[in-house]
């Protein structure tokens, strides 16, 4: 079963959700978004900030082999982490809902705006990742390497929301 997100509703102070369609059967599904707790967010934010400030002045010189090895490690770990976070922390239980074909077409039309936004965010994350990897190659700064890791994780999260079937869905009128 290949689920394609066709519409995402994001409204502040409400339970947000995404509507999916099964590519083969045309059945529709709804999944509510998981809401991270504010304490988890702030603890993670300040822990990362404290860690980044601690290694800010740490510039190590690496041989080219180690630099390429670190870049490959970031790519592998970032890809695995992005897939894990998307599957584990994005949606609650997916439930089947019953929509008519005209309702599905309406949701597809409404979903174009979110689709374009997600494409832009994915592109910005990819550009940030590529820029920071190039910067790391020249500076050997661990802060830049960690930033590139997070940019790749966010890029992968958005790529999983943009399967090629969804792209085809919005390209065809």
Automatic annotation (TrEMBL):
InterPro entries per the UniProt record, alphabetical: MFS_trans_sf
Natural source organism: Alkalihalobacterium chitinilyticum
Keywords attached to this entry: Membrane, Transmembrane, Transmembrane helix
Entry protein name: DUF3278 domain-containing protein
Superkingdom: Bacteria
Transmembrane feature ranges: 39-56, 62-86, 119-138, 144-162
